[in-house]
Amino acid sequence: MTIDKSKVLYQIYPKSYKDTTGNGVGDLRGIIEKIPYLSELGIDMVWLNPFYPSPQRDNGYDVSDYKAVNPEFGTMADFEELIRVGQEYKIDFMLDMVLNHCSTEHEWFQKALAGDSYYQDFFILRDQPTDWLSKFGGNAWAPFGDTGKYYLHLFDVTQADLNWRNPNVREELFKVVNFWRDKGVKGFRFDVINLIGKDQVLTDCPINDGKPAYTDRPITHDYLKMMNQASFGQDDSFITVGEMSSTTIENCILYTAPEREELSMAFNFHHLKVDYQDGQKWTIMDFDFIALRDLFHSWGEGMSAGNGWNALFYNNHDQPRALNRFVDVENFRNEGATMLAASIHLSRGTPYIYMGEEIGMLDPQYHSMSDYVDIESLNAYQIMLDEGKTPDEAFRIIQAKSRDNSRTPMQWDASQHAGFTSGQPWLKVGKSYKEINVENEKNGKIFPFYQTLIRLRKEMPLIAEGSYKAAFKDSEQVYAFEREFEGQKMLVLNNFYAEELTIELPRDYQHGQLLISNYEDQSISDSLILKAYQSIAILAR
Questions:
Q1: CA gap 77, 144 in Å, rounded
Q2: What's the confidence (pLDDT) of residue 1?
Q3: What's the whole-model pTM score?
Q4: Band of the pLDDT at 99, cuts 50, 70, 90?
Q5: What does the DSSP assignment read for 319-369?
Q6: CA distance linking residue 22 with residue 425, whole number of Å
């Protein structure tokens, strides 16, 4: 399995992209309407967050029917039209597959509860719970009806983990994958897929809340190979990405090296925890540049050496906007946005753009807790109050870290609700929409820069295929790397701060050729002054 490494992906959170009915919730027809816009940006594939029937306890990641469309988002006919219109514009679609767990409202769980032993074996049931903790807080086990048994839920209590050791479960899940393949889908993103291989004998594991007992277990690789062979592996042009929770470089090489026939690429999240005080999310601190730089270098070099493949991103539906985390947005929004873009689009791996990132969207700057709807944020606020924080302190942390920061409606224009809906949006629009919107930004600095980065990846095998090597490893403000392919070399320099600094260029790059810079009038001599949040790529002589 070899993937086209020149492709760029775009993530849409359907609920917040474009509403065509006026009910305040984005829908599939809204995405169809915006396909020409996506085509103008230049992307190749769109990853859609779940739009399946769901009680929405975890924003659709609690699936109650894997082979249907939630009426809130439209109909199966709308979905089929989405695929068809996408093809006209040479844009494919990647669906989110949530195969580690299903909703307790799913027919399988309901039949199991009703006493059907065939379906009881679809879940992980035990007479005695272990000491594992749920990733959403509290015990990872809950009573299974009045049977005296307990079922495992690594996430919300309504998300029951599926028993991948049961071949019938695997067969049903592979059918789900093939159902959507038959609809014309060309990619899958597998949610927390490195958690599917639980140990056969489940025992207490006080280390790290029990994670070592179910994360990156060797049997996971066997399951992925089985799924590959039974479904998407039959089509060479298919793109798959695994969301890997608390993973390692070694495992991600195994998940993604082409000869292993598991997945095309892997997401890891280590670089998005560099502003967590003592590893805790609900805290406020300046990001640790040294940690960020070293993580990018170790993953870049490690995956390059092992022939693995990274999915590269700063933003998604679970993260605050990267601009607010890493950049002085008051003074350098354009420069910061373009620098962050170049730092991944010129690197080794497949870049993902999260909706609104291409126009430099910011966190919404809400004024009160009543503006937030994310269950994780509401719970965290209460916990912080219980721990003794003042309402002001707790609110400031929610403002910085809430998942709602990235889920605000897409900002299309300066009209009411940013052109997202004619009704009342399900989540309040961000404060900046009158200035920061697609209509304004298409002629601005950020959107055209993204277009150029996407075009360069398509035109230059050096960017798509080249190896990765750390450069200026000890710099305390510049993240730099070298790419090399078939004798051609490129140096990329990214200044992560507002302070200028002078860089002495390595000999090969002195008087080299400027490939791209987010500042105009840049000349290349023996050294150069990197301006605030400047990104520059130079081809070796």
A1: 37
A2: 63
A3: 0.97
A4: very high
A5: S--HHHHHS-HHHHHHHHHHHHHHHHHTSSSEEEEETTGGGT------SSG
A6: 9
533 is written with which tokens? 């949040």
DSSP 184-252: T--EEEETTGGGS---SS-----GGGGGGGTSS-HHHHHHHHHHHHHTGGG-TT-EEEEE-TT--HHHH
- Determine how many CB atoms are found less than 10 A away from the CB of residue 252: 27
Nearest CA-CA partner of 381 in 369, 373, 371 = 369
- Which active-site residues does the annotation give? 191, 243
Angle, helices 218-230/249-256, rounded to nearest 10 degrees: 20
> Who's near 255: CB < 8 A, 6+ residues apart?
194, 221, 224, 242, 244, 262, 263, 266, 308
Contact criterion met (CB below 8 Å) for 466 and 484? yes
In terms of Cα–Cα distance, which of 227, 230, 201, 123 is closest to 166? 123
> Residue 203 corresponds to which amino acid?
T
What is the per-residue pLDDT across 139-189, written as a single tens digit (0 to 9) for each?
999 999 999 999 999 999 999 999 999 999 999 999 999 999 999 999 999
Between CA 220 and CA 199 the distance in angstroms is: 10
Residue 499 identity:
E
The rounded percent of the chain whose pLDDT value lies above 90 is: 96
Taking the C-alpha atoms of residue 289 and residue 537, their distance in angstroms, rounded to an integer, is 20
Q: What is the DSSP letter of 433?
A: G
